[in-house]
Amino acid sequence: MLIQPGDKNCIRQRFRGFLPVVVDVETAGFDPEKNALIEVAAVTIGMTPEGEVYPNVAVQANVLPFKGAQLDKSALKFIGVEDPTHPFRFALSEKEALKKCFDPIFRELKATGCTRAILVGHNAFFDLGFIRAAADRQKVKSPFHKFSTLDTVSLAGLAYGQTVLAKATRAAGLDWDDSQAHSAAYDTDKTAELFCRIVNDMPWLNQTAQ
User: Fold this and answer.
1) What is the mean pLDDT of residues 109-128?
2) Which amino acids are annotated catalytic?
């Protein structure tokens, strides 16, 4: 199938029918089955008629711990959330938060003709693990491929020789603010910028998509 840069939906061809969606989660630990999901953010990736990708639709939600969730105090301290149930967080239930993030992704899938979303993340297996566990727990349909991901750790390591998000972002010539790091929304935005920079700096694949 020949990639046609003038096609407004060419992103479905560029990524083998998948829609890249950058995701970052902040959690109360490392076990997706036991530890609470605290924040989730997602940014869909769009493509211009000329074939350049860009951060498109962004969505974020603070999340209330699910019933029986384990909360690791050191993990909460690391992400700067003392009390996940504090009313000023305006947090949603896990099910509501997932639906808030998934709905715009499903709309983008329909608009682009892509078959599934593919999760883009920095250490993407971690984010996908928590998304899958939460979706299974809440019986919410996920737009994401069950195991395939695009990981900016690997991509940035190849492109810039850096695997830490802050260092890779700076190596790509992008701004980074340490004071905003470790919030899902900020890390997702910067990961999306990094992913787009790497993809756009690659030679345009104007051969054939197998």
Assistant:
1) 96
2) 182
Q: What is the pLDDT of residues 16-41, one digit of tens each?
A: 999 999 999 999 999 999 999 999 99
Hey, what CATH topology would domain 18-152 get? Answer: Nucleotidyltransferase; domain 5 (3.30.420)
Whole-model pTM above 0.85?
A: yes
- Please give the Cα distance from 98 to 105 (Å, whole number): 11
Three-state SS string across the chain, please?
CECCCCCCCCHHHHCCCEEEEEEEEEECCCCCCCECEEEEEEEEEEECCCCCEEEEEEEEEEECCCCCCECCHHHHHHHCCCCCCCHHHCCECHHHHHHHHHHHHHHHHHHHCCCEEEEEECCHHHHHHHHHHHHHHHCCCCCEEEEEEEEHHHHHHHHHCCCCHHHHHHHCCCCCCHHHCCCHHHHHHHHHHHHHHHHHHCCCCCCECC
Per residue in 160-169, pLDDT tens?
999 999 999 9
**Encoded tokens for 140:** 């919410």
Mean pLDDT, rounded, for 87-92: 97
